[in-house]
């Protein structure tokens, strides 16, 4: 279906794959995830990979936690780490109450949250999302957006397909479109019209901002503080980067900026 | 690999899909071996019964994970490892059956030759019976693996082919399973215990080759 695909996946990058229905986007994602092998050619490098399918089957004889524990171990975590990661992601998606519910009794949306959680458990270096947002509620979509931004800030690569053209619009670094049997690079247009967050931070005397801040924030240096403006999706990752940098930065204020025209 | 094996085994045991093949094994034993029968004859029946049962267990394990779930585990490890763990889970279950079946048969059978004239020591008989059961389990695993996903994807053909191939593997001379069972049954007539070591080696080689082929195919599209 696809021929002559030459794709390099750099770290710290969100890659969007576009194409009409049935064009082979999902096939490409499965090749990148190492689930299928190409008939010709090869993949080099095998980062720690996680994959989120579009529709996650509930037909597995485990509870939500039971499944996440198994997957955590399969992703290479130890028993205790798998346990705490499973708890953490159930909490982040607000589904702690379903921890002991059999997967077969979960709603479609909650099942999809489990599918997303299993991928994020072990902090993958390559995150492949095949319309992972489908079926998630608004809050869970925002959590997933934030989690992708967080992984990418930590050096991972995220490759995704989604029918919503605005999905992660302010985080996408590369866009590729499947056209016929070829994969064509498309100019990535950073979407600046989404909600943004302004962070006022002050560093210790003489400190410079860390390089490669998540979301490449716009910065204004004031007398005794720096104002950073970043797409809302990156704000958590940016705050974390500032607070955990050495020496740590002090956060003076955070403001949510809503675009005027929306 | 251990985590995958644990996951596949949990899938098998929690799904209750193991029940039909295990019941079939029980029926074979109940029908083919009575208390007081000559031990080697009954062990031959038990070993032969394990071949189709293992093939069935492998079929169950190879197809038990829904595709989307398999994609998640395959991305985290590799399709070949996921498939290897399926075969491992099924073989582990068959090994448990082999040990349990051999123990029960050895305990309830008469430790004599077929004509009840010559004494057959129980421990060597049980050892030979267990090895023969393992030979049959390995041949069954190889057949099951070659005749289901990802080689044969149609359920109907897969079941038919597995059933016929299992029968053939038991009756065709030259098959390690046939010679292992035959060794027990002929040994029973003279009261001698043959350890099927050659058959065990041959069946291990067969299952290794079959595993290599099917695991390689596991990453083929679909």
Automatic annotation (TrEMBL), chain B:
Transmembrane segments: 82-108, 128-152, 164-185, 197-218
Name of the protein in question: ABC transporter
Keyword annotations from UniProtKB, A to Z: Membrane, Transmembrane, Transmembrane helix
Originating species: Streptomyces beijiangensis
């Amino acid at each position: 279906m696809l021929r002559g695909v030459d794709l390099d996946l750099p770290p710290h990058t969100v890659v969007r794959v576009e194409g009409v229905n049935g064009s082979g986007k999902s096939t490409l994602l499965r090749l990148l995830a190492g689930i299928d092998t190409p008939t010709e050619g090869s993949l080099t490098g095998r980062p720690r990979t996680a994959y989120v399918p579009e529709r996650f089957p509930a037909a597995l004889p485990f509870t939500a936690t039971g499944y996440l524990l198994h997957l955590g171990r399969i992703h290479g975590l130890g028993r205790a780490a798998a346990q705490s990661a499973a708890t953490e992601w159930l909490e982040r998606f607000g589904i702690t109450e379903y921890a002991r519910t059999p997967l077969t009794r979960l709603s479609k949306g909650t099942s999809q949250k489990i599918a997303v959680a299993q991928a994020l458990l072990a902090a993958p270096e390559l995150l492949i999302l095949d319309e992972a947002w489908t079926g998630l509620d608004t809050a869970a979509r925002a959590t997933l957006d934030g989690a992708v931004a967080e992984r990418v800030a930590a050096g991972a690569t995220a490759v995704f397909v989604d029918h919503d053209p605005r999905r992660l619009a302010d985080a996408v670094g590369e866009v590729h479109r499947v056209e016929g049997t070829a994969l064509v690079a498309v100019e990535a247009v950073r979407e600046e019209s989404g909600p943004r967050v302004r962070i006022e931070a002050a560093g210790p005397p003489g400190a410079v901002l860390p390089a490669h801040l998540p979301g490449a924030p716009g910065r204004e240096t004031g007398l005794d503080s720096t104002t950073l403006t970043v797409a809302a999706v990156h704000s958590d990752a940016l705050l974390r980067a500032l607070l955990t940098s050495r020496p740590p930065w002090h956060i003076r204020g955070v403001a949510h900026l809503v675009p005027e025209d929306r | 690999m251990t985590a995958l094996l644990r996951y596949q085994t949990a899938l098998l045991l929690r799904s209750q899909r193991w029940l039909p093949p295990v019941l079939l094994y029980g029926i074979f034993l109940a029908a083919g071996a009575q208390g007081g029968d000559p031990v080697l004859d009954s062990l031959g029946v038990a070993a032969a019964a394990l071949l189709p049962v293992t093939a069935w267990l492998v079929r169950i394990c190879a197809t038990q994970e829904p595709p989307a779930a398999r994609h998640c585990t395959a991305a985290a490890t590799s399709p070949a490892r996921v498939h290897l763990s399926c075969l491992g889970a099924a073989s582990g279950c068959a090994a448990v059956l082999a040990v349990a079946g051999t123990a029960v048969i050895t305990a309830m059978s008469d430790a004599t030759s077929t004509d009840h004239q010559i004494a057959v020591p129980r421990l060597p008989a049980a050892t030979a019976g267990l090895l023969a059961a393992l030979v049959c389990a390995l041949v069954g695993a190889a057949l099951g693996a070659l005749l289901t996903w990802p080689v044969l994807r149609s359920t109907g053909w897969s079941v038919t082919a597995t059933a016929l191939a299992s029968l053939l593997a038991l009756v065709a001379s030259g098959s390690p399973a046939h010679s292992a069972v035959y060794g027990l049954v002929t040994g029973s007539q003279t009261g001698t215990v043959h350890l099927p070591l050659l058959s065990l080696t041959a069946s291990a080689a067969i299952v290794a080759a079959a595993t290599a082929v099917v695991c390689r195919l596991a990453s083929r599209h679909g």
